[in-house]
Every structure is written in C-alpha cells, then in structure tokens.
Amino acid sequence: MNTDNNIDKYRRQFLASATAVAGLAIAPGVILNQVAHAKPLDQPASSKNRWGMLIDVNKCATGCDDCVKACNTENGITGMGRPTTDPQWIRKVKLTDKQTGYVQSLPFMCQHCETPPCVDVCPTGASMKREDGIVLVDKHICIGCRYCMMACPYKARSFVHEPLTDQIYPRGKGTVESCTMCVQRIDDPNGPRDPACVEACNASGHKAMWFGDLKDPESEISKRLKQYGGVQIRADLELNTGVRYQNLD
User: Fold this and answer.
1) What is the pLDDT of residues 53-80, one digit of tens each?
2) Which three-class secondary structure state does DSSP give residue 148?
3) CATH code at 108?
4) What is the separation of C-alpha 105 from the centre of its chain, rounded to a whole number of angstroms?
5) For the chain, what is the domain count?
6) What is the pTM of this model?
7) In terms of residue numbers, what domain contains 174?
8) What is the pLDDT of residues 11-40, one digit of tens each?
C-alpha cells in the first residue's frame, strides 16, 4: 500500500468538500479531543480557563537547552540533522544588544494568541484555537498549504518534510505543527500538569518557566504577573498572547 498516495487522495477528497468541513471548526474543543489527547469526548475544553506560560529571561541560562530536549522527548520529535527544515516546537533564541553587547537567552515557541493569525488564514479549519486558549493543528485535515506558517509573526510553526514512524501523538509528513503546551498533560484525567519544558526547567534548578491558568487570580502565574508584570513579544500586534516574558530588555 502506498501511504503517500493514499494521503494525497484523501486531501483531494477533502478539498472537494471543504465547505462542509469548515462548519466543524465552530467546535474546536470537541474536534481536537478526537485528534490529539485523552480527555473524554464529552468533556470539551472550557473557556473558564486560559492556559499560559510565563518565562523569566534572567533565569534562563545561556547554553541550556533542557526545555528543548524535554519537548522533543515528550512529543516524539526527532530530526534529520537539518536545522533549517527539522521540526522545532520550541527553540532557544539569543538576543544581543548591538550597542552594549548585552546578551539574553530565552525559549521561544508558539505564543498561543487569543486572536491567532494562523487560524484566520487556514482554508480547512485545521489550525484552530481551543476554548481554553490552546492553539493546535488537526493533522487529519491539514493539507500542508503552509499559509499558517506565512501568517505567524513568530515563525513558530514547522512543516514535516520526512516520513514519521513510532509516533507518540498524531503527527504526519506533509503537515504543519507547533508547540501544543503539551495538551496531553493539560487534559490529563487526574488534572492539568506542567508542560514538559516547564517541568525540565524546574528540575534543572533554573526555575525560569511557569505554567498555569491566566484566568485564575490565585494561580502562581497570575500572582507573578500581578506582582512583577510581563510583556508580550510584538505587543503592537494586539494578539494577546498566552506566553509572557519577564525581564526582557
């Protein structure tokens, strides 16, 4: 059986019925539960929560990539040694002040916008935002057009160029993907758990990352934002990102 031909056939069939499928995108929580994680189908994501991350740049060690390694292990992301084309759900970025030479290092991933441009331009509804603010890609209906990659102002999405084997969670050649905030952990039947990157950062002793419910004033992330503040990358775009940074000069 030629799997690639079957995938192409499916995509052609899907495009022929795109109007019907687009109607399904009005229930993102339910659709994504069918695709990506273990939450029961009768328990869609709730707008009562807004999951987010807070990253203290001063605590992020230059040269440390524990968060990247943890993400790759958790989500089964492997590369072919091609830095420009291998999937990257999270990457370390170095910022250098050209005048002073001051260097900052920070982890960078999908910013999980409240009004995500990737969702706006997706012709199939594959790019969607859950009711709890998590932005995901439904691999079953992504046609690989990469419009979302062009629309993302953060260059936070990757295209899968190579065939994949031994997948932990749904992924596929010819589709787009990005950070999911480890949605499988958020939807754990025993209650939300920290994403792998946050867990690894804490385990390493840096403790530069926090995860939690931005709508809960009693959550640690909300308390820290209230006390110390936090900034968005490209706040001028007014996307209201779910990822915030502290001490970013």
Assistant:
1) 999 999 999 899 999 999 999 999 987 6
2) helix
3) 3.30.70.20
4) 19
5) 1
6) 0.81
7) 3-246
8) 444 444 443 433 333 334 333 333 444 455
